[in-house]
Amino acid sequence: MEGRYSSELGPPAASIPHVSLPLALCRKMRIFCLLLLVLGEAWSHVTPRPNFVLLMADDLGIGDPGCYGNKTLRTPNIDRLAGGGVKLTQHLAAAPLCTPSRAAFLTGRYPIRSGMAAQNQVGVFIFSASSGGLPPSEITFAKLLKSQGYTTALIGKWHLGTNCHNSSDFCHHPLSHGFDYFHGIPVTNLRDCKPGEGSVFTTAFRLLVFIPLQVLALALLTLAGLRWLGLFRVPPALIFSLLFLAALVLGLLLCFLHFFRPLNCFLMRNHDITQQPMSYDNLTQRSFLKDNICGPLTCGSMRVNHIPVLVKFGRFEHSFFSLSGQILDVLDELKLANNTLIYFSSDQGAHVEEVTVKGELHGGSNGIYKGGKATNWEGGIRVPGILRWPGVIQAGLELDAPTSNMDLFPTVANLAGAPLPEDRIIDGRDLMPLLLGQSQRSDHEFLFHYCNFYLNAVRWHPRNSTSIWKAFFFTPKFSPEGANGCFATHVCFCHGHSITHHDPPLLFDISQDPRETDPLTPTSEPRFWEILEVMQQAAAHHTRTLQDVPDQLSPGNIIWKPWLQMCCSWSGLSCQCDREKEEGRGSH
């Protein structure tokens, strides 16, 4: 049993010198994806390690790309990528939310192992001045690549914390996790970051502001009526206290609305803020790789072995697909395609509850699958997964074996010749045996699906069987009833009155019922109890491998702390600067 949970180490590879690769960044910072480029060519007779291009979109549903069945949205570049490589049809995010999923992707570990799985309802970082984040003790694949002579950069959305104790310690910052360069947003890309797009805090405003104001107003009216009727002598201090509380609540709301965007929606370059608040209109295309590769670091020294660049983009738009086409074109132009492994995926499923103030659905498509972001129904965790490596990976291949975004950690590490850490459990599995046809099935017999801190479901692909069992210990309560999401709260939650517990667990055969509409029973499945017993034993074994670690998403770690707030310059009681625009003018 223990062997099923161990990782395999790949063969060593030779070191390689750099070559240049120009690449245009996104036209708008509304698009964030994850892109790692590792460029090189052989300088010995040993087979060289490949270049890597890792693209991760944010909230991109498996039903969005044309190659996964979308008939209304044209995605020729992603389709081209899939046609030239392997399409994974059961590729799974390790968590259905941004922060824990990205932590798992970078570390190859379930987020609960690093403390990046919340024990409360808020499962992601909302404020830039929060003290939680990816612990410095965690090993990202960027750190492993850097140990092998790589130069690394992260561009786009980080969402894994920034500071611990003051506004400049940068303990959780990308540059503290193996990246030599960072250009992007430290938190996330909420609709609150763009004026006129509404707010994701509507429910919170109703509970914490409007209802208290109504109660205070009713109390004041009642006291005024009693005093007018002469039935009760109202102390002036009581009236003053109620008015003060009402003014305080209203003042806090106005401060939040005024300060949230500039304090949390900004761009950084390395440790410096370059645009605060972030402006979508002023973000034009940049040529990061061209500018940096032609600098003295790369052009002036042939000692640089690799040029990996990690880029993240967020909200899904057509220009993201255009960017992927530019990457393919550049690789072909520089004759690097045959020595480059490209990976394309999303951090979780589409956010089905994302509705604009005009009532328009902007959440994307999860195809035939139930649920979406923040749930472990297939729509929340089954994401696009495409890998392309001409001449190595067979083109046009489609694999249905269960795989995880955690698998990129050991895959990249092994191909780069970096030994996997031996002082911790790595939950990802090397994908290459599966991609090369050396294995007919994934090395994951069991996969564990967490809703924040809580084990939500178990997936089991038995040896010598085509069945893929999935057992839910609890499921979210969709609202309104009959909907495909939690529209009343904008996102589904993981405990308390927001879920329904199942005893016995809710069991599905995903291979026969991918829509998860018909749970099995002892009558419809004769091995019902036997299957559940095996899955519960696997869950118990997995739980015993967990260690207590600090909760990075505890209320104390996610709350806004003024001493951690980063600000480029105070102007009009707010933070304002636009070095991006100034640098853009200077480059013309």
TrEMBL record:
Domain of life of the organism encoding this protein: Eukaryota
InterPro entries: Alkaline_phosphatase_core_sf, Sulfatase, Sulfatase_CS, Sulfatase_N
GO cellular component: endoplasmic reticulum
GO MF annotation terms: hydrolase activity; metal ion binding
UniProtKB keywords: Calcium, Hydrolase, Membrane, Metal-binding, Transmembrane, Transmembrane helix
Signal peptide: none
Gene3D superfamilies, per the entry: 3.30.1120.10, Alkaline Phosphatase, subunit A (3.40.720.10), Helix hairpin bin (1.10.287.550)
All copies of domain Sulfatase N-terminal, residue ranges: 50-184, 325-418
Keyword Chaperone included in the entry's annotation: no
Cofactor dependence: Ca(2+)
Protein's UniProt keywords contain Membrane: yes
Segments passing through the bilayer: 204-226, 238-260
Family in the record: Belongs to the sulfatase family.
Protein's name in the database: Steroid sulfatase
Organism: Sus scrofa (Pig)
